[in-house]
Amino acid sequence: MYSERINALPPYLFAAIDESKAKVKAKGFDVIDLGIGDPDLPTHPHIVKAMCEAVKDPKTHRYPSHNGLYVFRKAAADWCERYKGVKLDPESEILTLIGSKEAVAHIPLAFVNPGDVVLYTDPGYPVYKIGTLFAGGEPYPLPLKAENNFLPDLDAIPADILKRAKLFFFNYPNNPTAAVADMAFFEKVVRFCKKNEIIAVHDNAYCQVVFDGYKAPSFLAAEGAMDIGIELYSHSKTYNMTGWRIGFAAGNKALIKGLDKVKSNIDSGTFDAIQLAGAAAMNESQACVTETNEVYRKRRDILIKGLKSMGLEAKPQKATFYIWAPVPKGYTSIEFTETLLEKAGIVATPGVGFGAAGEGFIRFALTQPVERLKEAVERMKKLQF
Ligand SMILES: *Cc1c(COP(=O)(O)O)cnc(C)c1O
């Protein structure tokens, strides 16, 4: 009944965890869910207010334009200049997105022919691989290892793979490892992509979820990046807007055009009222972002204590609302996730769920309030691994 592309989807690795979670809950256990990468805090009130105003205007009720409202694209360009030091033309170098996930899925349709190789960082956002498979491409994972600070080793890619490689998905600040990349790495990516004629796609979904004074750079600020690259931005994690479905792509004109071609034939753009609220989010004070980050930082410091008390090695990360910790010796990531659930009622995500190279790690999301995290820490203190 299903198409080959659906049948080729990897098995749902979280099924076993979901089942155990339901079992533990059915026993009446108070489960603390640190599995979900979805902000628990509400969208900031001034953005909601902008939406309420926008939706009252009947002009917003019609089909949006294929590449987005100019007001939104201009706000995105100004935002990129203000916070990332990158100058972009809102007419040709910015495209409104229905969240960045659709762009990850649509980009291979624009640039990948059957048999082309798509490089992507592993562990990683599952859509890099699935979007590639849907387009008939051949996904090639680049393992992220702790000893390389979770950056891929571009020099280790075999020559025959490089010859067929068309596109490269990467993501820093990184989900799930919480690793960050510096300009030197981005510049290396530019040289690598130019030399091998590869399109660079940087997923920058977590660039504003940062702590301790760290600022996440834009890939587009690397010398030459605009020649070969595109960068994806999302309001989801920055402004607690996952449900709204809004973000933008920025970068090389021809790449933006290719993505726009696919999108204009598949979707009909983003509701104008959401774009107006999204523009307000970018144009107004960013104090709300700083406030949210302070909440995550406090949570991070609490949870790290709990992990240490159990014997897990966890370092405070500079960005993202995740903690990526190695599992104790003798456990696979799935076994340890199940153990934590059964013994402490704590849900986390097994690293292998993000790709083979995620084996040996577990991801905790800081998307629960401080009281719940403190309760999790109390439970962790009673465990030793
Ligand atoms: C959350 C997330 C996204 C996509 O978010 P959207 O809501 O679709 O904008 C993209 N990449 C990574 C790595 C994410 O974690």
Quick synopsis:
With 385 residues, the chain is of the alpha/beta class. It has helices at 4-7, 15-26, 45-55, 70-84, 100-111, 127-134, 159-164, 183-196, 225-228, 235-238, 253-266, 272-283, 287-310, 333-344, 370-381; strands at residues 32-33, 94-97, 117-122, 138-143, 165-170, 199-203, 229-234, 247-251, 322-326, 346-347, 349-350, 361-365.
Order of strands in the sheet with the most strands? Answer: 2-8-7-6-5-3-4
Rg from alpha-carbon coordinates = 21 Å
CATH fold call of the largest domain = Aspartate Aminotransferase, domain 2
The CATH superfamily of the largest domain is identified as Type I PLP-dependent aspartate aminotransferase-like (Major domain)
Bound heterogens, unique? pyridoxal-5'-phosphate
CATH architecture classification name of the largest domain: 3-Layer(aba) Sandwich
Roughly what percent helix? 40-55%
Estimated structural class? alpha/beta
Strand content: 5-15%
Q: What string gives the helices and strands in order?
A: HHEHHEHEHEHEHEHEHEHHHEHEEEH
Shape descriptor reads globular
The number of helical segments is 15
Number of strands: 12
CATH class membership of the largest domain? Alpha Beta
Mean pLDDT: 96
Query: What is the makeup of the main sheet?
Result: 7 strands, mixed
Quaternary organization? single chain
Instruction: Estimate nothing, just give the exact number of structural domains.
Output: 2
